[in-house]
Design a protein that fits this description.
By secondary structure, the protein is α+β, with helices and mostly antiparallel strands. About 25% of the residues lie in helices and about 30% in strands. It is globular.
Length: about 210
């Protein structure tokens, strides 16, 4: 299971290094009929899933966020973290999920330096700018550059993190936690972004 995998890795890392970290783990599940992923999330890093669906008003397809992970925290700004015997117990704080995906779904995995400054639906501007029509299928949009989209999201989070007047996700959470009704601004933190897209495997490719 992912819990066992992460728990083992946590123990090995803690013997070699001091420190703590949040953790988001995703695994593709082999299946003959569906595209499935299993996930385990610990702390306030996370992931989101995005899908192009028909717009009811004009029938055109547009990106929709169909899922985003919920931060795991002891209290606001104190996330669950790995750290060997000094960290949280994976089996107690890890949130496991399984998702059935569709071809062309987009997955974004991010650290809290991103989610403190951007809501997942705000990734769409970067995603759209990094996609184009599939030359072999005019009904499909495919990612042209995963690194470009990831960099765009990361730079957006970085710039907003420096904006002291920005009503960031972190600022909204701080106000809800009682840090003051006038609390505003982004938050600088570690920024990591990984982007993936589920692609249908051509029938002529043999799986070994």
């Amino acid at each position: 299971s992912l819990v066992e995998l992460v728990d083992t890795a946590n123990g090995m890392a803690a013997k070699a290094h001091l420190g703590s970290a949040t953790c988001t783990t995703l695994r593709l599940v082999p299946d003959t009929t569906d595209y499935k992923i299993q996930t385990l999330n610990i702390g306030d890093s996370g992931y989101s899933i995005h899908r192009r669906t028909n717009n009811n008003s004009d029938g055109k397809k547009e990106l929709k966020m169909i899922y985003s992970s919920i931060p795991g925290q002891k209290r606001f700004n104190f996330p669950h973290q790995l750290g060997g015997e000094y960290g949280d117990v994976v089996a107690k704080v890890g949130v496991e999920k399984e998702h059935v995906l569709e071809a062309d779904d987009i997955i974004v995995v991010y650290s809290d330096g991103v989610s403190d400054n951007l809501f997942p639906h705000q990734f769409h501007a970067c995603i759209d700018d990094g996609m184009d029509m599939d030359m072999e299928d005019n009904n499909t949009m495919m990612i042209l550059s995963y690194s470009w989209i990831a960099d765009c999201i990361a730079r957006s989070a970085y710039e907003l993190g420096k904006d002291k007047s920005f009503d960031s996700p972190f600022a909204q959470g701080a106000r809800e936690a009682g840090w003051g009704m006038n609390f505003n601004g982004g938050k600088h933190d570690d920024i990591t972004v990984v982007v993936a897209q589920i692609r249908a495997q051509p029938e002529h490719i043999e799986v070994l």
